Amino acid sequence: MATKKRIRKDRVNGIYAYSDIDKMFANNLQIAHEYICDQIGVDVPLLYERKHIYGPAARYMGCYKPSDTLCVFNFSANYGQTLSRALETIGHELRHALQFQEGWFSGHTEHRQRWGKELRGDWKGEEYKGDYLNAPWEIDARAFQQHYGQITHHLFTKEELNTVLPVYEAKYK
């Protein structure tokens, strides 16, 4: 029985780029990331992942990791998204970076309750206990994500902004 070998792809900032569209997304997201960082005054690196997670965290589009001072973009959760929408994800996570830098937010903990998870954290000196969607740091990040994404639109063509990140299907030789 012959062994199948996976086709080697170009490695781009943490992941293998499986197509020219992957490369375009990776390069353009890096350009936008650096531009937004300059505009809002943060200095955090960008890392790409392909995380296939199941359960409550299955659809995380990106995240900010304060312990590593790192912004992460999850390619797997962004399949089917346009570059324009992906720029909003970068904006959302960079807003979290700004929140930490300014001392507005220092992180949260999750506590399991009979009715589900409860987040606890301090936001601008006030204690918060509640769900993810109503957490003030998430409300703040959602309020700025579209603006942060749109301030980069002039850097790209309309065609690039409307390009959709295709679903990757493993191919073997």
Uncertain ranges:
1-8
> Helicity, in percent?
25-40%
Total count of domains: 1
Element order: H for helix, E for strand: EEHEEEHEEEHH
Largest sheet: 3 strands, mixed
* CA(first)-CA(last) distance: 14 Å
Average residue-wise pLDDT: 86
Shape: globular
Describe the strand arrangement of the main beta sheet, using strand numbers. 3-5-4
Cα-atom radius of gyration? 18 Å
Strand content: 15-25%
Number of helices: 4
Brief summary:
The protein is of the alpha+beta class and 173 residues long. The protein has helices at residues 20-40, 83-102, 136-150, 158-161; strands at 10-12, 15-17, 46-49, 62-65, 70-74, 105-113, 116-123, 126-130. The chain has a three-stranded mixed sheet with strand order 3-5-4, covered by helices on one side.
Describe the structure.
By secondary structure, the protein is α+β, with helices and mostly antiparallel strands. The chain has one domain. The protein has four helices and eight strands, in the order ββαβββαβββαα. It has a three-stranded mixed beta sheet, covered by helices on one side. Strands 6-7-8 form a three-stranded antiparallel beta sheet. Strands 1-2 form a two-stranded antiparallel ribbon. It is globular. The two termini are 14 Å apart. The model is unreliable at 1-8 (pLDDT under 50).
